[in-house]
């Protein structure tokens, strides 16, 4: 019931429901009762209708926003003896901002005026309703004291609501709390309108933004005990796990952590036609969203002030306190002093960032505003790179079922048991890592490749580890990359000596082979071959990795063939074990070669040293 003070909303509610909403006590002993202003009108197997009567000016605004998810129809009450009044116009503005679609106009107190005056009042009302949601609304003439037209109005309400689509109760449960109290013997009770989803008796819930975990001990829907409460219904919930002092109006009761706690929201707003005062950049405002009333500032990106209706405006609200919201939520903005309704609108993105002033920001906000579900998922993943289902629900404001349906599209990839990313991002990351390896191979052709930390080093501040791991694993599976020990390289790559050094390397190996076991310092071979110190470490590592040489110690390296033959000869000419002296006689080596060689045998696992002997590992 909407309308000016004293136009008969409460009396009309009583005539329709036989409940005097001004007479109900706030608390009923040992019961969970529905808040003042809510009265059951009609119920059958298919339909349950209750009237919300909100008689005060400020209270109207708070309760209308709080109950918007439960409002399917508005009865605009206009007294025949007064007609449209200033508060009626403000209520019309607010209803429009809140997205209310269906309306009926009830002209009350018709017994107080003659028929000709009623005709004048109707013409006046029709003029005032032009361009509003009530422009084509049906009129019903009633008098609540004599009951004239009451049955006609009731029948019209029932018929109109029966023709409407039923509510979608899918998605996570959310109830903005508008009252908190205690009932003797039962504890803490909260009331509110279920915004979305379903709650069941015994269900575990959470109070946001405080993060308090609670359980729904008992439920009541419109005075009656219930096992469940659905989107659109008024519910009272007896909670365990929390005291009355811990809760307040504006807190939100939810069934999951998918809802965003935020202080910065990107919004689309409209303002009232006749603003009394200029709305200026970063001006303090009061934002009514859900049951929360939070101070904040309005931030424009394409203007510095606003005095008249300029259509839909894309901007941002920066709040002084945290609220719980999601995309699509409706809100009202009011000037705190002097008090005035500025406008209202809906939340485009509950996780607004800081943007630059200018048309580029407006363009990006426009894209956010009109985005399809797939585009919203795409945008969220472009920003987050890799997100879980819960994070996607939070960022896109899509319910889980719709989100899973959209994620089946080929543009989206599930990269592990719970995280998703974009096909395009995966391909871009693979291309970047491919280029990184290719450039490394060109610069260091004799090295095996890069370890994972080195490979992803330049990307760890841009992409989450789970995405980088997925890309690397998939690239290895496709043989685009290969892995050897801890090193990654391109699939087609093999370490090699640059062509301009090949002959010098071959000459070095020939000299090593010729000198057998009695070699010079390896640095002398490098010097004799004319190999510069700048590539010497890489060449030495390459020769060792390819087993072309074996380092006996830091100074001496044997040709790989020489080492192999020495091992074979020693095996043949000794038994299962041998001593140093025996090995020296067989290989005709001095201690400066013999001891490092035997320690290398131990290191490579050919032998085990037991006291003064070496035992072969057969």
From TrEMBL:
For this protein, what is any one GO molecular function term? translation elongation factor activity
General function of this protein: Translation factor necessary for the incorporation of selenocysteine into proteins. It probably replaces EF-Tu for the insertion of selenocysteine directed by the UGA codon. SelB binds GTP and GDP.
Q: Where in the cell is it found?
A: Cytoplasm
Name the record gives this protein: Selenocysteine-specific elongation factor
**Which keywords, in A-to-Z order, does the entry hold?**
Cytoplasm, Elongation factor, GTP-binding, Nucleotide-binding, Protein biosynthesis
- Where in this chain does the record put each Tr-type G domain? 1-165
Q: Does the keyword Lipoprotein apply?
A: no
| Alphabetized InterPro entries for the sequence | Beta-barrel_SelB, EF-Tu_GTPase, EFTu-like_2, Elong_fac_SelB-wing-hlx_typ-2, P-loop_NTPase, SelB_WHD4, Small_GTP-bd, T_Tr_GTP-bd_dom
One Pfam family linked to the record: WHD_2nd_SelB
Its taxonomic path starts at: Bacteria, Bacillati, Bacillota, Bacilli, Bacillales
